[in-house]
Amino acid sequence: MYRLLIVDDEKEIRDGIAESIPWREMGIDSVYQADNGAAALEIYKKHHPELIITDIRMPGTDGLEFMENLQREESQAKVVFISGYDDFQYARKAMQLKAWDYLLKPVKTAELTTTVMKMIHELERETKEHDDAWMNVLPVLQGKFVESLLTNKAYYNEALFKEKCKQLKLEWLDYLPLIVCVIEPDHYSRVAPSKKEQELLSFTIDNVLKDITRKYGEALVWPFDKSSWVVIIGLSSHNDNHYELMEHILSINEDMLSDISYYTKTSVSAGVSSVSTEWSLLPQLLEQSLKALTNRQFTGGNKVHVYESTPGVLQDDGDTFDEFAFLNGLRNGNAKDVRAALSGLPKLMLTFPAGADGTVSRPCFEWVLSIHRLLEQANLLTFSATESFRLWQTIEQIETIDALKEILTEHFVSLCRQTAPSIGGILQKALDYIQANIRDKITLEDVASHVYISPIWLSRLFRQKMDRTFLNYVTMLKIEEAKTLLAQDVKVNEVASLLGYQDFAHFSKIFKRFAGCNPSEFRKQGLERTLP
């Protein structure tokens, strides 16, 4: 809706113009009046009307002087002059001031209506052009703003940040929980050796990321450098359950990697930060995601690496000892990964404070015990006091870090041989529990509790051993159970209810994704196959 200002020293003329034309039907919801140019200027400064109808000759500040004042205000309002004087000098001055039109009194209602409608159409055209130009430049401005946030290139207080977000249509940065992901092709220089190939790969990845992030609602893609991209995602469906939230975050990133790999025929890795509700922590989230991505050198490419910290274990510096790969290798009985991670053990031990004997034997032994405790908490292994004492007797005799590394590498590799069989048993027990309770609402935490391991570890176990997420596996079994029930002539809506789906439309959508058709079509196909 637009605003109109009528300026004339004769009240009857002002009222006549204000009341004789159905302004609201034309898209004008506010009509202001002023009896001279000075009063009109004050109204303009307060209400900023887009349309102005003004007389020329008035006491005090006349219409021409009023328009000159408007130009000093850099006004974009459309102005039409009305005058009882058919004076060429007045008309020429009005045109010099870029008036929209010059009408002679008495002005006919139809003539004034037509003139104002033309002004409105011009405003609409200008607004569209402005909006189109703004939408073209908006992604660039958003990228520069996000870059300044991530790299601390500019300071923003709370008020300035909110104002900037509103201007750039990024309000979600202020109220949604945020994660930062760094996406990077594996072996970039190998898969794109020439500049032309690099440009094509970068163009494709950039477009695929922008395309897929649109379906997650609030997300922004920013090219970090020529071979990596930063994706900031606002978690609009934020779940307070940490483990289900992690599943959701992993699913988003795996979708991105899958689409990029499909279109570029190149494997891609992602580093993912923790979740934060503070926009001011974006630089730290970027640092976390970059640090998480360094795990690629130990666990291989084409994976999502999530930044995590494990309580009770000393943290690596991101360049040497890879704690994540080490613990993952131990839990999965993967001796190769354990050996690879422990290649950085000497630098980790250099961070240990020397004991009273001037060596790191004691703090090193305490670190080993902390790893033992983690394995015990995961119900993978148990360690007796005698075993721990014998290990200490061995460690305390060692005088060099390299020798300690060799002893501890063999110790942890030997543990891998013991944890490997346990993994299969734990996973099978989890699968049996899911199968037995497939008609119930099954959560990651329920199954983890049943097999006495942490939910996050069970989630990883499914990805590594089953090559699918926990949620995907449970859903797949539920759909197979649904097929069995449908074949037994159970009503479709009853099938959904039996399997824990309260929303039938949601159940039908999931069924079609896994089975290729909706439940009713599946049943019809089954009946057709049984007909003679």
Automatic annotation (TrEMBL):
Highest classification ranks of the organism: Bacteria, Bacillati, Bacillota, Bacilli, Bacillales
Keyword Lipid biosynthesis annotated: no
Species assigned in the record: Paenibacillus eucommiae
Matching Gene3D superfamilies: 3.40.50.2300, Homeodomain-like (1.10.10.60)
Transmembrane parts of this sequence: none
4-aspartylphosphate sites (modified residues): D55
Coiled-coil ranges from the UniProt annotation: none
Entry annotated with the keyword Transport: no
Ranges where the Response regulatory domain occurs: 3-120
Subcellular location: Cytoplasm
SUPFAM superfamilies, alphabetized: CheY-like, Homeodomain-like
InterPro entries linked: CheY-like_superfamily, Homeodomain-like_sf, HptR, HTH_AraC, HTH_AraC-typ_CS, Sig_transdc_resp-reg_receiver, Tscrpt_reg_AraC-type_HTH
Domain HTH araC/xylS-type span(s) in chain numbering: 428-525
Keywords (A to Z) from UniProt: Cytoplasm, DNA-binding, Phosphoprotein, Transcription, Transcription regulation, Two-component regulatory system
Stored PROSITE patterns: HTH_ARAC_FAMILY_1 (PS00041), HTH_ARAC_FAMILY_2 (PS01124), RESPONSE_REGULATORY (PS50110)
Name of a matching Pfam family: HTH_18
Name of this chain's protein: Two-component system response regulator YesN
SMART domains in UniProt: HTH_ARAC (SM00342), REC (SM00448)
CDD domains membership: REC_YesN-like
